[in-house]
Amino acid sequence: MAEDPRDWEVETQAVRGGLARTPYGEISEALFLNQSFAYESAQAADDRFAGTSPGFIYQRFGNPTTQMFEDRLALLEGAEQCKSTASGMAAIQLSLMGLLRAGDHLVAGRALFGSCRWIISEWLPRFGVETTYVDATDIDAWTNAVRPNTKVFLVESPANPLLEVTAIGAVAQIAHAAGAKLIVDNVFATPIFQKPLVLGADIVVYSATKHIDGQGRVLGGAILGPDELMTSAYKDMHRHTGPALSPFNAWVLLKGLETLELRVRRQTENCGKVANAIAAHSKVKRTIYPGRPDHPQAAIIANQMTGGGNVVAFDLGDRAAAWKFLDSLQIVDISNNLGDAKSMATHPSTTTHRSMPEAERVAIGLTEGWVRMSVGLEGPNDLVRDVSRALDAT
After folding, report:
1. Rounded distance between C-alpha atoms, residue 95 and residue 228, angstroms
2. Quick one: CATH architecture of 261-393?
3. Assigned fold of 8-258
4. What pTM was estimated for this model as a whole?
5. What are 262-278's pLDDT values in tens digits?
């Protein structure tokens, strides 16, 4: 009897999940650079388009390499189905547009990545969708925001950039009681440290550009959830609006999944050491890291996450001090990406959240002294030395 991959350990799933070998028996997954596929007969083409015969039709609809990536990530996430996209933002937009119609209402955590805020504040209103932003850590705020036409809840947890954590299970209960669906952006926690679907979420989204690639090479995104919802909400939109992931990028991301668990755990170990050094420094006004007991939502983290992740945020008081810190780094790069093998730090107010109005940044606590740092795979002693030296210089 063949083993069920769902029973495998996560390490085995990450290496062998979704594997589909050709008759050549290749060890590394095959890369199919195909736009289209041939049929044995006109009847075979008709059957495949009708959905009565399995097989691939067109790269925008699916591809063997892309399918392997989707199957492997779905296995890691514990989802029935995954649809990959060309970028993380394509995944966010598709996840929302597939569930919302003109006249619908969205409730979203107010701490979101800047491009997510743009989609919600600038794009969705063009199609008649209204949004209420709430403090995602305030459970009563979610309840009070519900309207008769509320269809979707959206939350990042941990959130970008100040790493606030939402009680996903509690918010899911409120959403379902209102007849709404809960979308969770799980990019900071990764499927290694948090399982939103198990906690009650309906849809999980990722920017695969971050930890899943993890080496600064390609863009990619993913939407995951149960078969029925994924098919009804996203199948046609995914096919006809064109957010498809390229086979080459899918292959790179597929190989990234093989080492995801190893990388994320080592990055988290490093980040814990760096976060402690930052928190102990006299120049730092406040440090937020989900792996520390002084995180504002430490009790929630203990209940729904199994690791703190590799991102830490800290407040140096003002822009001048934050910029001085960044300019004094010798190992860590100044970059707005995260989840990479290389450590990088950014000033969110002038980069990732620049498009957010100042009043809204202040509302989520993002003043100009904050720095967000993604810790990589370098030696932890080197990172602590580099960060401490830069803090001394502020």
Report:
1. 14
2. Alpha-Beta Complex (3.90)
3. Aspartate Aminotransferase; domain 2 (3.40.640)
4. 0.96
5. 999 999 999 999 999 99
